[in-house]
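Q: I have 289 residues here and want to know how they pack in 3D. Can you give me a structure?
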Amino acid sequence: MENAGITRLEWPSGDEQSPEELYLELMKRVLTGLVRPQLFVPADIPPSVADAPEFQGLQPYLQQHNLAIVERVTRDMESRVDGVEWIPDGETMIGLYRLDNVQHCVREVVRDGIAGDLIETGVWRGGACIFMRACLKAFGDKEKTVWLADSFKGLPPPSADVYPADVGDLHSTYGQLAISREQVEENFKRYGMLDDRVRFLEGWFKDTLPNAPAERYSVIRLDGDMYESTMDALSALYHKLSVGGFAIIDDYLWHKPCAQAVEDFRSKHGITEPVVKVDRAGVFWRRER
């Protein structure tokens, strides 16, 4: 699973791919925005232009005809593949490699009959969970539920007195991370994936995860960035992870507090399964005991 450089821009070659695999490949490219090489965004108008009489005179016409001034942005496609940018469109920013990893893990637990639902903690626009639900459909699973755990209002301010590793963390100030539950549900609907096997846990992890209704999980995917969020998720979920199930940590290689929480938890509970690199950010392991 290790990424040795950007090699995922080209469509996978060969005639061996099944219709299910082709469907999931297309889903990944749509969810990450790779099928749209250009994007039009509202133009950043300099004050010297915005205040000019000519521009001011143009505003009533634009408003009357529901028009806007936009600029064309050509994407860095390799960044999309590798999941290293906050994208203005698309439903996930985790890139193709980490979506490949989700597909691998879901395929394995369905194939091997590993009991338990799927959960992501920290869902942003819901893209990874939309893809989880698509994987379950593609692989013919009729039982597993996909759980989305999120505050739907961004990350919490750091509790530095309890978790010193989060001192100075700024994630709570990033408005881009505060995506409403209603918007996530709409995203699911647009892909035809919102059904009774998609469930929401709304609130801070410390409040929602300890009493989450699912009895077992086969895949837990943690995307909480911070030490506190990562530790809260591991503490509440890992003991419910079935043997043969997968733990995926999105930010392990990017955010030291996240990695520290994982290592502290693994050490405390004697977890020795090898941690496998997915790409420049994510890792995972398969529970063996």
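Q: Anything worth noting?
A: The first helix runs from residue 19 to 31. Residues 83 and 94 are 4 Å apart (CA to CA).
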